Amino acid sequence: MNKHETLRGILRYLRPHAPLLALSIVCALVNVAAQLAVPFFIGRAIDFCLGADNVDFAAVFRIFAVIGGCIAAAFAAQYAMSLINNRVVYHVLYEVRLDTFSKFQRLPLKFLDAHPYGEVAGIVLTDAEQFADGLLLGFTQLFTGVVTILGVLVILFVLRWEIALVVVLVTPLSLFAAKFISSHTYKTFKRQAEVRAEQTAFIDEAIGNLKVVKAYTHEDENAAFFAEQNEEYRKCALRAVFYASTPNPVTRFVNSLVYAGVALTGAILAISTAGSAAAFTVGALTTCLSYCNQYTKPFNEITEVLAEFQNALACAGRIFALQNEEEQPTDESARDLGRARGEVALSDVSFSYRPEQKLIEDFSVSVGAGRRVAIVGPTGCGKTTIINLLMRFPDVDGGSVTVDGVDVRDMTRRSLRKNYGMVLQETWLKHATVRENLCMGRPDCTEEEMIEAAKAVHAHGFIRRLPKGYDTVIGAEGSLSEGQKQLLCVARVMLCRPPMLILDEATSNIDTRTERLVQDAFARLMEGRTCFIVAHRRSTIKSADLLLVMNAGHIVEQGTHEQLLAAGGFYAKLYNAQF
């Protein structure tokens, strides 16, 4: 996203907080006005000190009381403005994170297939946090700085136009320097955010798959790759910090020139107008020098804020780019499938994750209700993709997938997926009790039904041995073995008893003895249900009514186990290779 689109996105979030922002502006104006009044009264107090034994203490004390009131008003306004700005910014941060996370729920799965999890997490957490920090600095310092600069210029023109002219002539040097540097800062911070996201994604992947890394003794390679990424991040960060740090000394140098010019011009005016009616007094010179300091100070702050704001814009751009991703189409107007009979057909289906890389082409198969279909083939042939298409995780590029004669694109995803029970090779359990994990698909099931499902897969025994039985809290961590987790996943499906089943190597993590028992439970579960089984094990393959042999996205053979072995084709070679 470009800067203008990013700024429009920021304004969209700020619009609901307009009343608070208006109140913040009022506080800022009060704060600036009170601070600008102080140098004027100090100059007046100095003019009442004419010499030894010639000081109007009563007037000086009255002026000091007024100065104290101005300081108190500035403090109160500054405090109120900080409270308001913090409230606005962190409400915006809350809304940005909420909207971004909600967006994830509406994105198609192909988005996560193309983006590492760590990168996505970095956008929600790190980028959003840095966006909020930059926004807070912008509210707190940018506006007050600009108002202070304009207020000082007006006052100087009223007090003495010659001094104001010196300030105006020297100031553009600071503005040009700040503009030149800020134009480069955005690019460097944008690149820094991208490299940080890549590094976060790699760290997430490396830690999440640490067992695999250690199993293949890939620690040194990972460390070397991380070192390269870290070096790239170091270069980007140093470049960004360099551009972010440059404005301050540049503006300080220009500010010193402004101060010197004002002091020299004021001294000349004080000498040349001494004794005249329009004399430029020492108090007036002190006031102008104080205003000069107040004028130059915001330039330092603004240039620092601009650097942070460029970083915030870069992070906000990544957030809004994600929020603008194409969503998964809604299906509110689609029909409810109800409870399906289980007749499934794929007609001339074609699908690919990337347009330039073909995967499934002209795939056709018809499965009657209650039939048991095994899908076999070498790695990467498209077995899991077919399962994803059945569940309508992605939609087909061409052709159609129908259930009971109805195209799945014409029915709601919820009603379609309620008719499928899935047990995958990779188990998934949430951080909750055993009971909550088992009853996830049927929260209204009875205690007896839950225990019956657990007994059917021979999980009741180890569940009962857990510290609190069915009320023991479990999760993805190592509280259960992989086999035990898989038994719970199988029991969860058995409890739902859907009309169609998808089993993707559902017994791969179970020992041989338990597998025999679970296979018997599966046999009872699959009776009268349409089953799609991605399998390699001989026991699973032989019990199927139909084998679909896939290779390179096509069905190359189909039939029963015995028929395909007798044919001596691709399946026979694939099957015999394991022996």
Structure characteristics:
579 residues; Rossmann fold; 2 domains; alpha/beta; 14 strands; elongated; ABC transporter transmembrane region fold
Overall tally of domains: 2
Mean pLDDT level: 83
Secondary-structure arrangement, i.e. CATH architecture of the largest domain: Up-down Bundle
- The CA-CA distance between the termini, in Å, is 56 Å
Could you list the spans in which at least 5 consecutive residues all have pLDDT below 50? Answer: none
Beta-sheet strand percentage? 5-15%
CATH fold category name of the largest domain: ABC transporter transmembrane region fold
Assembly context of the chains: single chain
Query: Which structural category do the helix and sheet elements fall into?
Result: alpha/beta
What strand order characterises the main sheet?
8-11-12-5-13-14
Q: Provide the CATH superfamily of the largest domain.
A: ABC transporter type 1, transmembrane domain
- Gross morphology is elongated
Cα Rg: 36 Å
Number of strands: 14
- For the record, the CATH class of the largest domain is Mainly Alpha
Helix content: 55-70%
Number of helices: 20
The profile of the biggest β sheet is:
6 strands, mixed
